[in-house]
Amino acid sequence: MSIQTKGSTMEVNNKTFDAGQTIKHFVARNGALIGLIVLCIVLAICAPAFLTGANILNVGIQAATTAILAFGQTFVIVSAGIDLSVGATAAISSMIVAYTGANMGLPAWSTIIIGLLAGAFFGALSGMANAYLKLPSFIATLAMMSVARGLTLVISDGRPISTSGLVNFFGSTIMGVPIPIVTMIIMGIIAAVILNYTSIGRSMYAVGGNMEASRLSGISVHKTQITVFILSGIFAAVAGLVIAGRLHSAQPEAGTGYEMDAIASVVIGGASLAGGKGRISGTFVGAILLAVIRNGLNILNVSSFWQQVVIGLVIAFAVSFDTLRRKEDAH
Asked: Taking the domains of the chain in order of start, what are their residue ranges?
């Protein structure tokens, strides 16, 4: 066996191992996780209260809603789309749950099913507009965001509606374990199974990578496009339940702006806005990273105005990194 060393490159049995390229690939694939670890170390040094058990649970609760929305968003972005309606879908779904329970007297379990179906319905409308009307997903979901938000205000007449005990369970703590965190983990596992171990998950990657090649290979592009938005709508509805459970009511303005955090979590987690690339584990890390940034800035008494600036810069960096990565891959 011959070993030749030149710089950072070793040749072993005619196989070249480039340490620099290996490290570069690892950082590119796990940049968000590395950033999260470094940030946690810095915050632990600057603010000892950060690593307390109570605060760690608080970070998890803060991340839960964003992560659930982002899991659904991952399906859409992997398929080369984008869903701007997830925050509004979470609001309309939770409002329908609260309204059917408080005003129609339906059992709590049935109202939750109706809420999930509502999320799927609004997602399906966005998917059909994208697939059959050929509307860009940005436009289709922007319109759906306005429709869903308006219907939320119509149903509620602009006022909160109290929720039942079963809905409130989604925001409760059982034996010291916050249910929002449990819900986030369950939805993350479901999302990972769908994306990694099902035919529709493989179709998402294929359609996002090359839509025309997917069509020619027999994949139903329209079916895939509609399915990813239905899944995004269902995940948004679950996030709406968590929001309503924590507040013990459905709020007309719930979820406002959450779509940006969801998209940011997916991109920070390593997904490409061009489609064909993304992982649920990366999205989870991205959502936790955003929650840690906000939590850390709060502990350090940084103004909420400056927090928005920091989050915006993080999003800009993540998108820029994705753009540079795609240019490099093209070469």
From this structure: 54-318
Q: Strand, helix or coil at 218? A: coil
CA distances from 259 to 46, 91, 176, 223, 227 (A): 31, 12, 29, 24, 19
What is the spatial distance between Cα 112 and Cα 104, in angstroms, rounded to a whole number?
A: 13
Torsion, CA 113, CA 117, CA 119, CA 120, rounded to 10: 140
Task: Confirm if 166 and 109 have CB atoms less than 8 A apart.
Answer: yes
Tokens 């191992």, residue located: 17
Mean pLDDT by 10 residues, the chain (331 residues): 48 56 67 87 90 93 97 97 97 96 90 97 97 95 97 95 92 93 98 97 96 93 97 98 96 93 92 91 95 92 87 81 67 60
Which 8-state DSSP code applies to residue 157? T
301 vs 154: CA distance, rounded Å? 38
Closest by CA position to 120, among listed 92, 160, 155: 92
Task: State how far the Cα of 214 lies from the Cα of 206, in Å rounded to an integer.
Answer: 6
pTM of the model: 0.90
CATH, range 54-318: 1.10.3470
Which pair of tokens denotes residue 58?
């608080």
